[in-house]
Amino acid sequence: MAWRAASFAPDGSAAHIGGQVLKSAGKIRSCRMSFTTIASFLAKVLACPKNNLRQRLREWCYDAKDKAGRKRAELDLEACFAPLLGWIVSCWASQEHQLALALDATTLSSRFTVLAISVQYRGCAIPVAWYVMPAHQKGTWRPQWEALLHAIAPSIPCEWMVIVMADRGLYAPWLYQQIVALGWHPFLRVNEQVLLRLQGSQEPFRAVSEWVRKARRAVEWKGGMRGRRALVLQHADRVGGRL
Predict the structure, then answer these.
(1) Per-residue pLDDT tens for 101-141?
(2) Which residues are CB-neighbours of 159 under 8 A, at least 6 positions away?
(3) Res 72 pLDDT > 90
């Protein structure tokens, strides 16, 4: 387990790796996610004070300035994103060369906004890269999303088919183009008011609802289109756009 933890944090100290091992072992053995429960379980196994162990586990992901004591180090989380996704890819079924990623922005009360990229697997989302910022912070999220996408890209084999999903609130032409530039397939929700026309055509733009067919509750589309406001939908041989 220590070797696996070290692979996630290539620049991590022995203390960081040890903390990750303790947390992981405590979660697995106690079947709980609470720091208090994990600390109580490990304290009995290691025969050490529960409160000291709990504080040690809590400070594992603190910034160096927020930790008690001197000469404290902090973990560079961004350096862990690619190894974490690489570990997931290494455990993937050998015959499955497809991966689904989801981009999501979640606001935690009125304190934080979390931008996250997650691997979709059997109805679950496994976060592999994230960025936390103050809630309602003004400005574009483009630099953060681009940095997250570039951070995980080296961990995915170039021959794999990767689809990237996002809700309509995250759609932007630059995001679509960034996903395509990485060789992946964007599956981004857009509003039904989007106007489209065939690529290379001079026909008037028409509402997206006139171009697509409805299948049950989902609206599906496949082909090459060009839209107003720099919306460009490229043709893909193996996957279609999903609106």
Answers:
(1) 999 999 988 899 999 999 999 888 999 999 999 988 888 99
(2) 97
(3) no
Per the confidence metrics, is the pTM higher than 0.70? yes
- Ordered structural domains, the chain, with CATH: 2-76 (no CATH), 95-189 (3.30.420.10)
SS (H, E, C) 71-92: CCCCCCCHHHHHHHHHHHHHCC
User: How do beta strands 112-121 and 98-108 pair?
Assistant: antiparallel
Selected residue with higher pLDDT from 50 and 221: 50
Report the C-alpha dihedral over residues 216, 225, 149, 139, rounded to 10 degrees. -100
* Closest listed residue to residue 80, CA positions, set 72, 69, 88: 88
Alpha helices in 47-181 (DSSP H): 50-58, 78-90, 142-152, 173-181
Residues in Cβ contact with 172 at an 8 Å cutoff, skipping those fewer than 6 apart: 142
> Which pair of tokens denotes residue 83?
């190894």
The tokens describing 202, both together, are 């001079």
Residues with Cβ within 8 Å of residue 216, at least 6 apart in sequence: none
Amino acid in position 7: S
